């Protein structure tokens, strides 16, 4: 039935049991423009819901455990939907969708038969945007948030830059994209809220036009001008306060405050060590990292397989040796991410695209078994030993799990041939690498059948396999390959099984999706994944830090877009690079051009560092990803500036010894950055505040109560003088010179100022 319920803010409703673990926080949910289905099991698994209340129209289906929210103009920009069970209220924050209708136009010509647009906002799929001819103009209507969107006009199926728009930017692969600039914001900017803690009362600094909604864990609490932490929280080891701001026009910033025994946490060492916001990941391709046992070296004996595409001996024992040597602990890493280590084929395969080179499965992404450890990496016992040793050294371990596809010789497909999607499309094309048009069915290659997850049995088998790996090896989470190519039902099923099996354990799940922020964010919801890699932000940061003719304004705009879709405080992955894209330093040192085929460059020549300034640029990129909200992720070798073009040139063997001065300096730079990240609450939980941004200067502050960290970037070829009030109250951490209240930032360099303890 249709329910209109009354929305009431309560001081605190119900009582919660004393907790020794950190409760999973419901992520705010962005409403659709029309109706939104909320699946209750995503939030409250196995709890009987007595009723649901909301400020507007809803349909509550108790039997099927879902709520349908019907969007209308009366819904405020932030609102609360409440789930009631045994007189205990559980509250979920809903964000109103602030998209507005826009019209994109293109002039007609006699030769034009069809007009489409391929853009970030439609995942570069022109088939989702057919224009209509109205008089002399082709028009297309859509709904968009404020922001900048790269795009190309598709005329008669031919992609080209929009000749009617002078605003364009490099696409990073040798060409240009047009830029669509949408601005819906009101002229009056919503001011940021800040907090002060006085005698366990949190005072909120806001103006009269700003509204506040605050939570203690997943229950709303009174929060107009201050928050009084309930005395009952003193018996809870860990809990969290979240504060969100808004007005009738906009959604403002948010604040997150961890508590221990009912007191505000001011030191990172007081945090729950299973706190996901503490994660700093290090990703290694097992085969290319460290060779600890030469007896399991079995490269494929095939002259057509180039050394770069063959097994090179890295294994589990090699990683164990590096844990024992303290390599990760000394860097400041607390989570290691292993590439897939289940059994891959013993023979090479021919790649689908031209020139059809032969590859081995050294990378692990062609599983012929979803659970058996590949003998070339070691044994099941070796993996058990690795995880056990890692935990003793305060390291978490997450495993790369491949769910989208298997190798054609995998018994899963051999025994269940109907569990794969169709290779042939109805139009006669092979459904291979059609990444966006056939996102949920396309094959990665002819020998890699994509699993058809419209089959519930396939979902159960593959999620059970993942759960088996989690349980058998005591893993701390997963990196999920090809997330966007797998339906959300799979991720909901897997996450539900994990929650049932480990209700009080912190399991971190991060996905991989190339696409729009909206698509990426659709998987980062309660009941699905904790985060994904923020590729859009990475590509924008790569352009800005690697190229002279780039602008920090573009990077800041990109960061604000990420905040808009993922929130001010998220578990999104901020990467230095990964195994699918060229090494950052290759571009930054002029060893690789943005105008060339990055993959072929790695085959045709040796990509070298031609300009040592690239190390400075890499250090700036690393400083950026470790000082913004989110989870820093270091791709192996980036700590020393390992060079490489596209796959597989970006997957060279790791170098540990005989490093040059530039490499040592880059490694020491990372250690210092991660030491700050690990020990500064402002860099873990702090808010983000822009101080200044120009084309070549970027200054922002991370603040957590009285603790401040000021980050300054200078990408010009001259010294920049930055005035900091009361500079004597700050530590200068990266050797910049100062004079009174002026900090002098060297060319192509950065500085981090941290206020001193009072």
Keywords for this entry:
758 residues; Immunoglobulin-like; TIM Barrel; globular; alpha+beta
Task: Summarize the SSE layout with pairings.
Layout: E1 2-4, E2 29-30, E3 35-39, E4 51-53, E5 57-61, E6 66-70, E7 78-85, E8 88-95, E9 100-107, E10 115-119, E11 132-134, E12 137-144, E13 147-155, E14 158-160, E15 168-170, E16 176-182, E17 194-198, E18 201-205, E19 211-216, E20 219-221, E21 226-228, E22 238-246, E23 251-260, E24 263-264, E25 281-284, H1 286-289, H2 316-324, H3 327-331, E26 335-338, E27 349-350, E28 358-359, H4 380-392, E29 396-401, H5 411-415, H6 456-473, E30 477-480, H7 488-501, E31 508-511, H8 517-522, E32 531-532, H9 535-546, H10 552-566, E33 573-575, H11 584-588, H12 598-604, H13 613-627, E34 631-635, H14 661-679, H15 681-684, E35 687-693, E36 697-704, E37 707-714, E38 720-723, E39 730-732, E40 737-739, E41 742-745, E42 749-755
Parallel strand pairs: 2-8, 25-26, 25-34, 26-29, 29-30, 30-31, 31-32, 33-34
Antiparallel strand pairs: 1-5, 3-6, 4-7, 5-6, 7-8, 9-12, 10-13, 11-12, 13-14, 13-16, 15-16, 17-18, 18-21, 19-20, 19-22, 22-23, 23-24, 27-28, 35-36, 36-37, 37-42, 38-41, 39-42, 40-41
Helix pairs in contact: 2-4, 6-7, 9-10, 9-13, 13-14
The largest sheet, given as strand count, sense and whether it forms a barrel, is: 8 strands, parallel
> What is the CATH topology assignment of the largest domain?
TIM Barrel
Q: CATH first level of the largest domain: which class?
A: Alpha Beta
Lateral strand order in the biggest sheet: 32-31-30-29-26-25-34-33
CATH superfamily of the largest domain: Glycosidases
Unreliable parts: 1-16
Proportion of β residues? 25-35%
- What is the strand tally? 42
In the CATH hierarchy, the architecture of the largest domain is Alpha-Beta Barrel
Please report the distance between the alpha carbons of the first and last residues. 59 Å
């Amino acid at each position: 039935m249709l329910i209109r319920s009354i929305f009431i803010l309560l001081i605190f409703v119900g009582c919660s049991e004393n907790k020794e673990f950190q409760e999973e926080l419901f992520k705010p949910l962005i409403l659709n423009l029309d109706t939104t289905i909320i699946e209750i099991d995503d939030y409250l698994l196995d709890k009987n819901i007595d009723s649901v209340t909301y400020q507007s129209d809803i349909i509550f289906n108790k039997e099927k455990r879902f709520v349908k929210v019907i969007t209308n103009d009366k819904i405020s920009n932030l609102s609360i939907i409440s789930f009631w069970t045994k007189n205990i209220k559980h509250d979920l924050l809903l964000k109103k969708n602030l998209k507005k209708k826009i019209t994109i136009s293109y002039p007609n010509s006699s030769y034009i038969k069809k007009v489409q647009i391929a853009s970030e906002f439609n995942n570069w799929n022109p088939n989702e945007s057919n224009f209509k001819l109205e008089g002399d103009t082709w028009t297309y209507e859509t709904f968009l948030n404020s922001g900048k969107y790269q795009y190309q006009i598709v005329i008669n199926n031919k992609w080209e830059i929009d000749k009617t728009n002078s605003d364009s930017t490099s696409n990073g692969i040798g060409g240009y994209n047009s830029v669509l600039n949408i601005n819906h914001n009101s002229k009056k900017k919503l001011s940021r809220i800040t907090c002060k803690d006085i005698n366990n009362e949190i005072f909120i600094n806001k103006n009269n036009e700003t509204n506040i909604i605050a939570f203690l864990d997943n229950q709303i609490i009174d929060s107009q001008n201050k928050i009084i932490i309930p005395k009952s929280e003193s018996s809870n080891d860990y809990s969290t306060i979240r504060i969100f701001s808004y007005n009738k026009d906009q959604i403002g910033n948010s604040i997150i405050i961890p508590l221990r025994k009912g007191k505000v946490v001011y030191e990172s060492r007081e945090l729950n060590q299973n706190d996901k916001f503490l994660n700093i990941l290090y990703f290694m391709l097992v085969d290319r990292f460290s060779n600890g046992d030469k007896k399991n070296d079995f490269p494929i004996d095939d002259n057509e397989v180039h050394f770069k595409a063959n097994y090179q001996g890295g294994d589990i024992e090699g990683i164990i040796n590096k844990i024992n040597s303290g390599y990760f602990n000394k860097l400041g890493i607390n989570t290691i991410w292993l590439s897939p280590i289940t059994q891959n084929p013993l023979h090479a395969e021919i790649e689908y695209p031209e020139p059809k080179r032969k590859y081995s499965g050294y990378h692990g992404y062609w599983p012929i078994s979803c659970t058996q450890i590949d003998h070339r990496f070691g044994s099941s016992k070796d993996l058990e030993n690795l995880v056990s040793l890692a935990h003793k050294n305060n390291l978490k371990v997450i495993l790369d799990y491949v769910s989208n596809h298997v190798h054609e010789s995998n018994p899963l497909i051999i025994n269940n041939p109907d569990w794969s999607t169709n290779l042939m499309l109805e139009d006669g094309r092979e459904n291979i690498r059609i990444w966006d048009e056939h996102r949920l069915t396309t094959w990665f290659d002819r020998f890699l059948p994509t699993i058809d997850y419209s089959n519930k049995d396939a979902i159960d088998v593959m999620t059970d396999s993942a759960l088996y790996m989690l349980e058998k090896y005591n893993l701390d989470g997963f990196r999920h390959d090809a997330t966007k190519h797998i339906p959300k039902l799979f991720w909901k099923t897997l996450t539900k099984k994990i929650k049932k099996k480990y209700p009080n354990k912190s399991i971190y799940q991060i996905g991989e999706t190339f696409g729009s922020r909206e698509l990426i964010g659709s998987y980062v919801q309660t009941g699905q994944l904790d985060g994904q890699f923020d590729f859009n932000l990475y590509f924008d940061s790569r352009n800005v830090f690697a190229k002279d003719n780039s602008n920090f304004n573009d990077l800041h705009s990109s960061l604000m877009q990420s905040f808009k879709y993922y929130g001010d405080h998220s578990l999104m992955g901020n990467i230095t690079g990964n195994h699918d894209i060229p090494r950052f330093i290759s571009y930054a040192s002029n060893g690789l051009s943005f105008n060339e085929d990055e993959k072929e460059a790695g085959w045709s020549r040796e990509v070298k560092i031609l300009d040592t300034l690239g190390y400075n640029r890499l250090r700036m990129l690393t400083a950026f990803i470790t000082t913004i909200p989110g989870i820093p992720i270091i791709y192996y070798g980036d700590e020393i500036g390992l060079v490489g073009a596209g796959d597989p040139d970006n997957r060279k063997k790791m170098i540990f010894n005989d490093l040059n001065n530039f490499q040592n300096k880059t490694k020491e730079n990372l250690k210092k950055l991660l030491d700050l990240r690990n020990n500064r609450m402002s860099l873990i939980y702090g808010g983000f505040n822009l101080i200044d941004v120009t084309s070549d200067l970027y200054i922002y502050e991370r603040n957590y109560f009285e603790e401040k960290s000021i980050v300054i970037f200078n990408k010009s070829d001259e010294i920049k003088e930055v005035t900091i009030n009361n500079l004597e109250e700050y530590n200068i951490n990266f050797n910049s010179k100062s004079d009174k209240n002026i900090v002098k930032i060297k060319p192509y360099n950065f500085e981090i100022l941290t206020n001193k303890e009072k």
